[in-house]
Amino acid sequence: MGFWQAIASGFSNYVTFSGRAIRSEYWFWVLFTIIGGIATEILDTAISGASPLNAVFNLITFLPSLALSVRRLHDINRTGWWVLIAFTVIGIFVLIYWACKKGTPGPNRFGPDPFAAVGQISPPPAA
After folding, report:
1. SS3 per residue for 30-53
2. Do residues 114 and 21 lie in contact, with contact meaning Cβ atoms separated by under 8 Å?
């Protein structure tokens, strides 16, 4: 999955907490939120006065980020509730490690393998 596909997928599935998300989808989204956060913070400091660009960007990307994190955990066959471990210091490192892991090959309890579906070509229509 490419960068723009991952961004489009993140916003189109912003309330989808079921299913699975592949590593590239997750990490391209993380890259997008980091770049967007830095850009809006720079714009906020460049504009004199109280500018809410960064706050608005964070609000817009919060729910898609949470949903994508849950779907990424589903890809490694973990329940989405594990995202709450981020409230501990060591839990952040555990989540980063899990986000780097390869997903469960084949279907798991959260759905079919999304990576296998990316490379598949649809069968020709029956004549």
Report:
1. HHHHHHHHHHHHHHHHHCCCCCCH
2. yes
* H-state helical runs in the chain: 3-12, 23-46, 53-75, 89-100, 114-118
- CA–CA separation, 43 and 52 (whole Å): 10
Which residues partner with 108 through β-bridges?
A: 111
CA distance 7 to 68: 11
CB 67 within 8 A of CB 54: no
pTM: 0.82
Tokens of 38: 């830095």
Give the model confidence (pLDDT) of 4-59 as tens digits.
888 998 899 888 898 898 899 999 999 999 999 999 999 988 887 678 999 999 99
DSSP state of 86: G
Amino acid code (one letter) for 63 = L
Give CA–CA dist 49/27, Å, rounded: 33
Identify the residue whose tokens are 């079921």. 18
21, 71 in Cβ contact below 8 A? yes
